[in-house]
């Protein structure tokens, strides 16, 4: 009995040491440390980067899986520019394939180049001006501002993140599909597609945080738990996207209709009739335009609330520029632009990007990278 008690105390002391330090052991690697910080992985990652002399460190996951994590600007440029073709989507693609399929954020090589080239038309000066002056301006003045004004007059509490997500969702659906979901209306409707999209993004993202990926793959194979819900959510999202695609095709063949110039129309007009391919692309753009924009704006307004002096300067700048056209005045708002950039530096909407090396390499800080390594 005494021997058993001593043995248990010995094991507990080892566990304590595992949790307090950053050990790397056979089979389990950094599992206990990762698990202890599972509620603050971004913060934990940032702390490790800051304490590393090279701003790069290695995490060993269970069963020998190793990942290189870096915040070194030279390394980031090396991966995303200098050796761009060497670092591809890899397991990122595997985790998000059910939702994104072969969309622009989930492909490499020629497929990526083609989608990027076609999509770039949407971000030309002319397209952006049209988007801001017609789509965003309407959404602002006819939906967002009236809701905020009414809430202020009635002293009503609003979930700002939800409101801004609805605002971004309406905007991106208009630019991607030429379709208005009217998600930001006074009744704040419970749209089935939006809820399904939320669930699909959340569950797909959770796959990245699982230390042993085989677990979610087993759940998917058995069609149980969160993976069952993911399958249902993705089905709902794709059914909605296919419905919009069908309507858009009809619009483009109907010579008498007023045809909109949106992302979906461009892809269909380019000769791509594969419905899955086109829907993959559009779903990717909804993901990019909705969550990143709403997250950035939520943190921005929270920081303004915490820094009233900055808020006063921004209000002053807006008043000084109010005689200009809406698109031109935004370009002239230097202080507001700087504040938004600083907000995204402190709270980046996408704090992590993941790549997989398809060949052995040496990073600028001297880190050796083996083929198949996750960065």
From TrEMBL:
GO terms for molecular function: heme binding; iron ion binding; monooxygenase activity; oxidoreductase activity, acting on paired donors, with incorporation or reduction of molecular oxygen. Residues 1-23 form the signal peptide. Its cofactor is heme. InterPro entries: Cyt_P450, Cyt_P450_sf. The keyword Metal-binding applies. Keywords: Iron, Metal-binding, Oxidoreductase, Signal. Belongs to the cytochrome P450 family. This is Cytochrome P450.
């Amino acid at each position: 009995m005494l021997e058993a008690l001593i043995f248990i105390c010995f094991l507990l002391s080892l566990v304590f040491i595992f949790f307090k330090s950053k050990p790397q052991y056979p089979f389990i690697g950094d599992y206990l440390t990762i698990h202890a910080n599972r509620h603050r992985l971004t913060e934990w990652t940032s702390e490790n980067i800051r304490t590393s002399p090279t701003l790069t460190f290695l995490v060993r996951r269970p069963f020998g899986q190793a990942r290189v994590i870096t915040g070194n600007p030279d390394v980031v440029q090396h991966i995303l520019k200098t050796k761009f073709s060497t670092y591809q989507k890899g397991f990122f693609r595997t985790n998000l394939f059910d939702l994104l399929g072969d969309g622009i954020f989930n492909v490499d090589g020629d497929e990526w180049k083609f989608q990027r080239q076609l999509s770039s038309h949407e971000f030309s000066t002319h397209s952006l001006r049209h988007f801001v002056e017609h789509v965003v301006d309407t959404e602002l003045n006819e939906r967002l501002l009236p809701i905020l004004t009414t809430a202020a007059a009635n002293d009503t509490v609003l979930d700002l993140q939800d409101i801004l997500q609805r605002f971004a969702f309406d905007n991106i659906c208009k630019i991607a599909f030429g379709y208005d979901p009217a998600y930001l209306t006074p009744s704040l409707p419970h749209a089935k597609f939006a809820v399904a999209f939320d669930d699909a993004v959340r569950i797909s993202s959770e796959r990245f945080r699982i230390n042993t990926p085989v677990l979610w793959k087993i759940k998917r194979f058995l069609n149980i738990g969160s993976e069952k819900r993911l399958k249902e959510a993705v089905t709902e999202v794709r059914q909605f996207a296919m419905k919009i695609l069908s309507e858009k095709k009809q619009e483009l063949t109907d010579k008498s209709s007023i045809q909109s110039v949106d992302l979906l129309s461009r892809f269909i007009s380019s000769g791509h009739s594969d419905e899955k391919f086109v829907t993959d692309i559009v779903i990717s753009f909804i993901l990019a335009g909705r969550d990143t924009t709403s997250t950035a704006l939520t943190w921005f307004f929270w920081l303004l609330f915490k820094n009233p002096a900055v808020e006063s300067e921004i209000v002053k700048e807006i008043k000084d520029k109010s005689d200009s056209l809406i698109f031109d005045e935004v370009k002239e708002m230097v202080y507001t632009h700087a504040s938004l950039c600083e907000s995204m530096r402190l709270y980046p909407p996408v704090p992590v990007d993941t790549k997989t090396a398809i060949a052995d390499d040496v990073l600028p800080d001297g880190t050796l990278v083996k083929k198949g390594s996750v960065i």
